Amino acid sequence: MPLDFTAIDFETANSSNASACAVGMVRVRGGEVVASTGWLIRPPAGHDAFFDLNTRIHGIRAEDVVDAKSWSDQLGDLAAFAGADVLVAHNAGFDMAVLKRACEATGDECPPYRYACTLQVARSVYQLPSYRLPFVAAEAGFAEFAHHNATADALACAHVMIDAARRLGVDDIDDVAIGAGVRVSQIVIAAQPELPRTFAA
Fold this sequence. Notes:
By secondary structure, this protein is an alpha/beta fold. The chain contains seven helices and six strands. The protein has a six-stranded mixed beta sheet, with helices on both faces. A hairpin with a 7-residue loop joins strand 1 (5-12) and strand 2. Helix 4 crosses helix 6 (150-168), helix 5 (133-139) crosses helix 6 (150-168) and helix 6 (150-168) packs across helix 7. The mean pLDDT is 95.
């Protein structure tokens, strides 16, 4: 199978995983970047405070997202770009938690994406003093990008997975995972409790 996937990166407004304020996405087909996109998000109500720490990291402020789509309104755009792809992210547990928790906060159904983590892959494939994205991307030949810009981070992540596949001599996400000794996981959506049935006498 060809090396097809969508790399994704979220930025958050505060310490809540539900506070998505930006997303970047990069589509890879046959081991080549073919499309990229990204946009600001108005975080869900109750998770929309912007902490100074977060703003210092990514530069996004509350006033920047006033006219942005809400999480619910942009979720369809996100799903349309990703399609049925495996999602790839650096420290994917964080980005998948953002997807899941933001959907929980808004009552939206979270797509049960399969996903792979370039942080885990990099720890197996590379020997580096640090596995932060800038160091890993530089090792993959993708240096000098705007770290914490969501689209730039997603593009860097995509190049890491492409390079890891090349080094492992494989051309499929599942084979990358096998070669690196990691798992392709899946977002697990908790089943809603079934209400007791009542019967008329």
